[in-house]
Write a structure and sequence with these properties.
Blueprint: H1 8-26, H2 35-54, H3 58-62, H4 73-85, H5 90-100, H6 107-114, H7 118-121, H8 125-136, E1 146-152, H9 159-166, E2 182-189, E3 194-201, H10 205-211, E4 220-226, H11 234-249, E5 254-259, H12 270-276, E6 280-285, H13 296-316, H14 323-336, E7 341-343, H15 344-353, H16 359-372, H17 379-384, E8 389-391, H18 394-405, H19 408-412, E9 416-418, H20 419-426, E10 430-432, E11 438-440, H21 443-455, E12 460-461, E13 479-481, E14 502-508, H22 515-523, E15 528-534, E16 537-541, E17 548-555, E18 560-567, H23 570-586, E19 593-598, E20 604-605, E21 617-619, H24 620-628, E22 633-636, E23 639-642, H25 643-647, H26 670-675, H27 681-704, H28 708-716, H29 727-750
Parallel strand pairs: 1-3, 1-4, 4-5, 5-6
Antiparallel strand pairs: 2-3, 7-8, 9-13, 10-11, 12-13, 14-18, 14-19, 15-16, 16-17, 17-18, 19-21, 20-23, 22-23
Domain Roc: 140-313
Enzyme class: transferase
Keywords: ATP-binding, GTP-binding, Kinase, Membrane, Nucleotide-binding, Repeat, Transferase, Transmembrane, Transmembrane helix
């Protein structure tokens, strides 16, 4: 199992399984010396399941001091000893030892451990174990008293004016220019000790594509609506931006603000919106220009509600630091005002000065600070490009990126960005951020900015296939393409034979994010055919499969992303592009869409009906279900089609109905126990091991909450840990599944398989 792991993170779980398998293979009697032992173990497992079902909650079950002792204490000791041999798993050995002996556990620590924030749960198993061990020792008590408030809405809605009003500044009608990109400022939250970071996003369309890098679930959103907009009414604005929040910010609270209500009443169907977006916390009509005058009362109501939501977000933060880590973070913030970058060696020196000497802990902390936006670094850049500095001030990056994206020069060049352009726009320019800090962009740091844009999928290097030099070429200037600034018109010489092509549509329920196509272009830029890329589409020619092309286009009005593949190797090229789109969409799990297959006329049977402006399509899942049911024809409003011909271009694996994935079942009941008495002692030992693993996993599912079964299925079929799950549930599920895996491995080895 360890050899099959690709990296140290996966090796942690593999090590645990390998130790368990080794123990089982060396001494099967450790899990059941005879049939009587097996019966005892099975009976104990059923007894514990019954006791768990009668407990008011999982915590009460784990902390029950009257719990019966586990059978076979010597084997219990052996299990703990084996567990301690796995790096960082001594925490779990201590945990299980406490549970075995019924020792009480501090409920507050249990809650902290069982409800890990996503920043911790997404780290490696060893990093998670180190964090849990620090929690158990009481070494992590400090929380960052900062919350993020994100102001979104169409251009000229009044987001900047609202922030000025919150700061007690004078607001005049038409007194602010449209925000170019993003502005970041700080605001003390009254009577809470919290500091709010205000992120004021521009309303321009290009900004919508870049907002995704800054939107988070644990924020407070303020959606400002413009009642005087000539393009959309407030309800349409609200629906668009609420879908934006759903895609990127999950269930984060949203406050709707109807600005300029002194000039035009803001009519919003709040009840209907709350039915589909229950995270709406209220609607607040006000006037920023009159916040001290005729609309002071309305503004005060909004401000009180806003402060309450910020305080709630601060209380809900579950990320804890040691005093040494907290002191280091504060020092880094102080230094960020003086210099945007910090040498790697200097960072390590600061860690040592604050008592953070362990290299693994420093690495964990650095990754955590990167997720929090306190320190920005890209491991691949440091490994491949030789960078040796960390970015302390995120404003350096945001201001630099937006300065490029909003430049007239880049717009005039239709998205073609050369290194000389970057120097011209930024080098040796002194930009002052919202806190008064001067941001310098020396030429030596510009490569970091460009590589960061590549990491964020904002641009791609112009390839030799497009007649432009590769990055790093000595005979020419480095050149990049920014997809969001490409020409808006489709190339006149675009040629793609749709006849016989496999055509597939992603139809979005209410919102097609503009960055989906841009990120897709960046990921497949080497296949772009002769400059044929524009803001709404791209033409590709596979480098790996001859005579195979693809056309991908986005229709933002109808919310359709269309993928068409034609040529000699459709079955090979289509899955690559299809999976790429799915991976991009997977980052927005709440984004609703359906998958539809275009119905090829060559598969039509007899005559059909034509619907003006509507091409024949069918739900892809329905077609697979029909095939699985043995149907040969598809009958729909467009006519009759040969199902086999419709799916003949589809790759074999995709043309099959999805098989039922395995689900975790509880250990067999008493009736099964009696049937097992004739089995060998070895098989009974493996049965007991599997049963205990199932028990641990079931407990993990219960602790993890409702809806974890679907996650667990994905976990069993994946090489990676999911981005966010409750830690205690994870531990038990991982441990349980490792025991089940160990039993299977040992059984196969026993039989020479």
């Amino acid at each position: 199992a360890a050899h099959a792991a690709d990296d140290a993170d996966a090796a942690d779980a593999a090590d645990a399984a390998a130790y368990a398998a080794h123990a089982a293979d060396d001494d099967a009697a450790a899990y059941g010396a005879d049939a009587g032992d097996v019966d005892t173990l099975v009976e104990f497992a059923w007894h514990e399941l019954d006791r768990l079902s009668r407990s008011p909650d999982a915590a009460a079950y784990l902390m029950d001091v009257d719990a019966p002792p586990l059978p076979f204490p010597e084997r219990q000791k052996r299990f703990l000893a084996r567990l301690r041999e796995v790096p960082t798993f001594d925490y779990w050995a201590d945990f299980f030892d406490d549970r075995f002996h019924g020792r009480p556990w501090d409920r507050a620590i249990m809650e902290k451990s069982a409800r890990l924030p996503e920043e911790i749960a997404s780290q490696s198993p060893r990093a998670i174990n180190r964090y849990l061990a620090e929690l158990a020792r009481g070494g992590k008590e400090e929380k960052i008293k900062r919350v993020r408030a994100i102001f979104i809405g169409n251009g000229e809605a009044g987001k900047t004016s609202l922030i000025r009003a919150l700061n007690g500044e004078t607001v005049t009608e038409g007194g602010t220019d449209m925000t170019p990109g993003v502005e970041i400022s700080e605001w003390p939250v009254a009577e809470t000790g919290l500091t709010a970071h205000f992120w004021d996003f521009g309303g321009q369309v290009i900004a919508h594509a870049t907002h995704q890098f800054f939107l988070r679930a644990r924020c407070v959103y303020v959606l400002v609506l413009n009642a005087r907009s000539a393009d959309t009414n407030p309800n349409q604005q609200a629906e668009y931006w609420l879908e934006f929040v759903r895609a990127f910010g999950s269930d984060a609270p949203v406050l709707l603000v109807g600005n300029k209500c002194d000039l035009t009443p803001v009519q919003v169907d709040t009840r209907r919106l709350q039915e589909s977006h229950p995270n709406i916390q209220g609607f607040y009509p006000l006037s920023c220009t009159q916040y001290r005058g005729s609309h002071a009362r309305e503004f005060g109501i909004f401000k009180d509600a806003f402060v309450a939501q910020l305080a709630r977000a601060g209380d809900a933060a579950r990320l804890y630091f040691s005093r040494a880590e907290f002191a280091l973070i504060e020092e880094l913030r102080t230094r960020s005002g003086r210099a945007a970058f910090l040498e790697k060696a200097e960072f390590e020196g600061l860690c040592q000065a604050h008592g953070i000497e362990d290299e693994e802990k420093r690495k964990d902390l650095l990754g955590l600070l990167d997720q929090l936006g306190e320190v920005i670094w890209f491991p691949d850049l440091y490994r491949l490009q030789g960078f040796h500095e960390y970015l302390l001030n995120p404003r350096w990056l945001t201001h630099g990126v937006y300065r490029l994206l909003y430049s007239d020069l880049l717009k005039d060049q239709q998205g073609v960005l050369k290194r000389g352009n970057v120097r011209e726009l930024l080098a040796n320019k002194h930009i002052r951020d919202e806190q008064g800090h001067v941001l310098d962009y020396p030429e030596s740091k510009l490569v970091f900015l460009i590589r960061a844009m590549e990491e964020f999928r904002l641009c791609y290097p112009a390839s030799f296939r497009q007649g432009l030099p590769e990055p790093g070429a000595r005979d020419g200037e480095d050149t990049w393409i920014v997809p969001d600034l490409l020409p808006s018109d489709q190339p006149a010489d675009l040629r793609f034979d749709r006849a016989g092509a496999l055509r597939f549509d992603f139809v979005f329920t209410s919102f097609l994010p503009r960055h989906v196509l841009s990120m897709f272009m960046v990921e497949h830029y080497k296949d772009i055919q002769d400059h044929r890329a524009w803001q709404h589409g791209v033409s590709l020619e596979s480098r790996h499969w001859e005579n195979t092309r693809a056309l991908v286009r986005a229709d933002y009005q109808s919310r359709v992303l269309a993928l068409a593949v034609a040529g000699d190797h459709v079955a090979e090229y289509f899955p690559v592009l299809y999976e790429s789109i799915l991976n991009i969409l997977a980052r927005m799990p709440r984004l609703g869409y359906t998958k539809r297959l275009r119905l090829d006329e060559a598969a039509r049977i007899g005559e059909g009906r034509a619907f003006p402006g509507e091409e024949p399509t069918a739900d892809f899942g329905d077609l697979l279900a029909m095939k699985a049911a043995g149907q040969r024809e598809v009958v729909c409003k467009f006519g009759r089609y040969d199902l086999q011909k419709l799916l003949h271009l589809m790759p074999r694996g995709m043309a099959e109905a999805p098989k039922d994935r395995p689900t975790l079942e509880p250990a067999p009941g008493p009736a099964f126990e009696k049937k097992a008495t004739d089995a060998s002692r070895w098989d009974k030992g493996m049965l007991a091991l599997s049963g205990l693993g199932g028990l641990a996993a079931i407990v993990g599912l219960i602790i993890g909450g409702d809806g974890r079964m679907g996650w667990f299925e994905k976990f069993l079929l994946s090489d990676e840990l999911p981005p966010s799950v409750d830690s205690l549930g994870v531990a038990l599920m991982v441990g349980g599944s490792a025991m089940i895996l160990a039993a299977v491995l040992a059984w196969l080895r026993r039989r020479g398989l």
